[in-house]
Design brief:
about 600 residues; alpha/beta; Ubiquitin-like (UB roll); Alpha-Beta Plaits; Rossmann fold; 3 domains; four-stranded parallel beta sheet; about 15% strand; globular
Length: about 600
C-alpha cells in the first residue's frame, strides 16, 4: 500500500502506523511517549500531523489507502510548539547535560519562553474541579499538590525519581507493568492530582522494584535517572593510598561508542581500555574473565544437579534484577537459582584476594569499579552477601552512560583513543565470556563447557542458534552421554514469569533456565545509551557474536588464566575457597 508523506509516495507495510512508516523511511516526526516495545497510546501528542486535512496523532493511527500526510505545516508546527510548552510547564528544566528528549525538542523548536506555568495551570484546573472553593483554598490545594509532586525519591541505590520533571508520558509505567510485570511504578491521583508514583506513595526502595532501570531507559524527560557515583569514583582515583581497578562488562564494548557518535554495534573494546587508563584507573580488567569463571563453576553445578537428582531446573544467577525478582515473587524457587555470584562480583572477589596477594597489596586499599550496562548492579554490589573477608567484592558500579559522562568531563574522546590490551591475569577471556552480554549467551557458553565436561569431547557446533535472537522465550536441547537435557532462555521479566509459572504448576520440561531482566539481555540494560530499541539491540548483539567468532578461545574452560587461577589458588570448582569467593546465598524478600 502506498501513502504520501510530504508529497512523496512511500510504500507502507500491513498494520504499520504512520509514525512507523515515517521512522523506517528516515522522516522525522517528534515523539516522546512512543515505545517500539509497547502498544502506542498517544499520550504526549507530539507526533500530531495533518492527515487528509485532519490533525491526528500518528503513533496510534494505522496506515490506510489514499492517506496524505503532512508533517510540518504551519498549523502542525503551532500545535507542536504549544504541546512542548504545556509539557515544559510541568517540567523543571535543569537536566545537568543528561539525555533529555523534551529539552532537545524545546531547543529544536526555538522555544525561549513558556507561556504556561504549573501554578496557573493548577489553579485553573482546580477551578473546574473544585468550583465551590474560594480562591485562597484553591491556591493552597494547588501548592500542597505541587509540594507532593516535586518530592524527590533517592531511597533506591540504583534509581533516582524527580517528579518535578515528569511529563506523564506513561512510558515508565508501561515498561514496569507490561515488559517487566513488576508494577513498582504506577499512576496515582486523578485530574490535576494525577502523577506517576508508587503504590501508597512508598519510597521506591520499599516497593517491588528490581532496580532493572528499564524505566530510566525510556524516560524522555529526566524524571528517572540512574544514581550517579562518578564523584565517589573520582575521589577514589585521587586518593594516593587507593589502588583503583576498573572492569568492563561484555555488553559495554558494543554500546558505549554510541555516546560518542559511533553507530550502534561498533566494537570499541581496546579503545575503552585506553580511555579508562587515561581517566586514572591503575588497572583495567575484563568482566569476561569473570564470565569464564562463572561458566566453569555454573556448568559444574548444573552437571552435579542434573546427574545427582539435585534441584532442577537450575536457573542462572548472573542478573541481579532477575535474582531479586525471584526473591520477591517466587521465593519458593530460590533453591533453583545457581549459587554462583555474577561475573563482576567474582572478579571483585578474586581481585581482592588472589590478585592482591600476587601484588602484595592490602585488600582494604583496593577499590574495584565495575563498568556495567546495568543499574541493578549498583544494588547488587551493596548486598551484604557480596562481602568477602570483611570488605565488598565490588565498591562502585558505573553505568555505560555514567562512564561516557565521566570521559567527557575529562575531555576524552573515545573515538580518538589508541588500542590497549586488558591487564592480566584478570583480563584474558574467551568468546564464551563475551556472549554473556546477549540473551541466550550465558546458556550457550554453559553448554559449550558442560558438553565437554560430560562427554570428554568438544561440541561439534559451538553456535547454538536455537537460543539466539530477540524472541521472548527460546528453547533448545542437547544430548550428553545418551541423556537429553532441555533448556530455555527468557529476556524481559514478563517472559521469565511464564517459565516460572510453568515450574509452579509442574508443567516445566526444562533442566536449565537462563533469564535476563532486560529485553535483549545486558545489551539492552537499564544503564545503556538512549535510545535503545530492537534494531539497536540486534546491532549490539551482532557485534558481540562477531567478537566471539574472531577470538582464538571460544570456551570458558580453555582460558589459560582460569586454569592458572585454579592451579595456584582455587584448586577445584567445589573447594572451600572457591565456594567462599565464587558462590553465595539468596533470601526471601
Amino acid at each position: 500500500m502506498q501513502i504520501k508523506i510530504n508529497g512523496k509516495n512511500i510504500e507502507s507495510l500491513l498494520d504499520e502506523t504512520i509514525l512507523d512508516v515515517a521512522i523506517r523511511n528516515g522522516i522525522f516526526i517528534p515523539h516522546l511517549c512512543n515505545d517500539s516495545d509497547l502498544s502506542p497510546e498517544g499520550n504526549c501528542r507530539m507526533c500530531i500531523c495533518e492527515v487528509n486535512g485532519k490533525l491526528i496523532s500518528t503513533c496510534n493511527t494505522k496506515v490506510a489507502p489514499n492517506m496524505i500526510v503532512k508533517t510540518d505545516t504551519q498549523k502542525v508546527m503551532q500545535l507542536r510548539k504549544m504541546n512542548i510548552e504545556l509539557l515544559l510547564s510541568r517540567h523543571k528544566t535543569n537536566h545537568n547535560g543528561r539525555y533529555n528528549q523534551l529539552i532537545e525538542l524545546k531547543e529544536e523548536h526555538n522555544i525561549d519562553t513558556v507561556r504556561f506555568s504549573k501554578k496557573s495551570r493548577g489553579i485553573e484546573l482546580n477551578e473546574q474541579n473544585y468550583h465551590r472553593m474560594d480562591f485562597k483554598k484553591k491556591e493552597k490545594t494547588h501548592l500542597d499538590n505541587e509540594k507532593k509532586t516535586n518530592t524527590k525519591d533517592d531511597s533506591s541505590p540504583s534509581i533516582l525519581r524527580d517528579n518535578s520533571k515528569c511529563i506523564l508520558c506513561g512510558k515508565c509505567v508501561n515498561k514496569c507493568q507490561i515488559t517487566q510485570d513488576v508494577n513498582a511504578i504506577c499512576y496515582t491521583g486523578r485530574g490535576v492530582d494525577l502523577k506517576v508514583g508508587t503504590f501508597f506513595n512508598q519510597p521506591l526502595a520499599q516497593t517491588d522494584c528490581v532496580n532493572c532501570g528499564q524505566c530510566v531507559l525510556v524516560c524522555p524527560s529526566g524524571a528517572l535517572r540512574e544514581v550517579d557515583d562518578i564523584e565517589k569514583v573520582k575521589n577514589a582515583i585521587q586518593n594516593p593510598k587507593k589502588y583503583v581497578i576498573a572492569q568492563t562488562a561484555p555488553a559495554i564494548r558494543a554500546s558505549i561508542g554510541e555516546e560518542f557518535g559511533l553507530p550502534a554495534g561498533t566494537l570499541v573494546t581496546k579503545k575503552l581500555v585506553t580511555a579508562l587508563k587515561k581517566i586514572g584507573f591503575d588497572k583495567v580488567f575484563d568482566t569476561d574473565f569473570g564470565a569464564d569463571l562463572t561458566i566453569v563453576a555454573e556448568a559444574s553445578e548444573f552437571i552435579s544437579r542434573a546427574t545427582n537428582k539435585g534441584v532442577v531446573p537450575m536457573c542462572t544467577s548472573c542478573c541481579p534484577a532477575w535474582v531479586k525478582y525471584i526473591e520477591q515473587s517466587y521465593p519458593q524457587f530460590i533453591p533453583n537459582l545457581s549459587s554462583c555470584k555474577s561475573p563482576h562480583q567474582m572478579v571483585g572477589a578474586i581481585a581482592k584476594t588472589y590478585y592482591a596477594k600476587k601484588l602484595h597489596i592490602d585488600p582494604k586499599n583496593i577499590v574495584v569499579v565495575s563498568i556495567m550496562p546495568c543499574t541493578a548492579k549498583k544494588f547488587e554490589c551493596l548486598r551484604p552477601e557480596m562481602n568477602t573477608y570483611g570488605f565488598r567484592d565490588v565498591d562502585f558500579v558505573l553505568t555505560t552512560r555514567e562512564t561516557a559522562r565521566f570521559m567527557k568531563s575529562k575531555r576524552i574522546d573515545l573515538v580518538q583513543m589508541q588500542e590497549t590490551e586488558y591487564d592480566n591475569p584478570l583480563g584474558e577471556s574467551s568468546g564464551a565470556g563475551v556472549i554473556f552480554g546477549a540473551t541466550g549467551g550465558v546458556m550457550e557458553a554453559a553448554m559449550r563447557t558442560a558438553y565437554e565436561i560430560v562427554t570428554g569431547k568438544g561440541v561439534s557446533n559451538l553456535e547454538f542458534n536455537q537460543i539466539r535472537g530477540l524472541t521472548g522465550i527460546k528453547e533448545g536441547s542437547i544430548v550428553m552421554k545418551g541423556n537429553e537435557y532441555n533448556f530455555a532462555v527468557a529476556h524481559g521479566l514478563a517472559n521469565a514469569k511464564v517459565l516460572m509459572d510453568q515450574i509452579k504448576t509442574g508443567k516445566s520440561k526444562y533442566h536449565f533456565i537462563e533469564a535476563m531482566a532486560c529485553p535483549g539481555g545486558c545489551i539492552g540494560g537499564g544503564g545503556q545509551p538512549m535510545p535503545t530499541n530492537n534494531e539497536i539491540r540486534q546491532k549490539r548483539i551482532d557485534a558481540i557474536y562477531r567478537e566471539d567468532r574472531n577470538l582464538p578461545l571460544r570456551k570458558s574452560h580453555e582460558n589459560p588464566s582460569i586454569k592458572k587461577l585454579y592451579d595456584e589458588f582455587l584448586k577445584l570448582p567445589n573447594s572451600k575457597i572457591a565456594e567462599k569467593l565464587l558462590h553465595t546465598e539468596y533470601k526471601k524478600r
